[in-house]
Amino acid sequence: MDTLTKAQRSERMSRIRSKNTRPELAVRRILFGLGYRYQLHRSDLPGKPDLVFPSRKKALFVHGCFWHAHQGCKVANIPKSRTEFWQAKFQRNIERDKLNKRALRRLGWSTLTVWKCQIKREDRLLRRIISYLGPAQPKVKKERSS
Ligand SMILES: [Zn+2]
Prior knowledge:
The chain is an alpha+beta fold and 146 residues long. It contains five helices and four strands, in the order ααβββαβαα. A four-stranded mixed beta sheet has the order 1-2-3-4, sandwiched between helices. Strand 3, helix 3 and strand 4 form a beta-alpha-beta unit. The longest helix has 24 residues.
């Protein structure tokens, strides 16, 4: 049963949609503190990745579980009313995510997807991000001029 009123539902959805949530900011702050440098929401790249690490050509997406239909996630349930509408919508979102990642790959970028529900488990998430990115300060190869 759909127990939410229209207003409650739209309020909840705007919350789900919002960028720069507090846990997301916390993760960013930690990464910055470790020496990683990134750019935010680069609109010139396919899919507008949330965090971009230009020197590594790595892009990180922070996906909301609801809108991006995180499989097997309890946040990603299909609303009980207008089920077909939502199913089609989620399918389009999944498809778009896939195309964006493919487009990025073609441009030489690799991507990592982080789900909103994983941000709560900060330590685990950070380990995953760091192992994806590699060390914060890669050794600079000095070219010898002869
Ligand atoms: Zn999730």
